[in-house]
Amino acid sequence: MRYIVGLVFFAAGAAFLYSALGRRRRVIAAGPDAAPKLHPSLQALGDTMPPLIVLALGIVGAKMALAFVVSGAERHLSYLDLLGFLFLLAAYGSWVVIRARYREAAPAKR
Known about the structure:
Elements: H1 4-30, H2 40-71, H3 79-101
Helix pairs in contact: 1-3, 2-3
């Protein structure tokens, strides 16, 4: 069980990155004018929230690493598990930023 958790976290983080890069490719291929215009209040949230989310993820990651070392969690979990968790947080933060920066166009109406 020591290394399985870390490998699952790495796989989940890789899935987040794969999804984010796929979205980026789709939006770039669609062109700059394909994205729908957002309401100004949603535009402000879309620009403000990603940095706050990334800051919160950084704080959670730092606290988790400190708690891992201080509590002696290496008896039950490995450092690979900790690195997998931190990678998952970083991948999720990247996913949030890319998703906010590259907005997809609305599906065509029929």
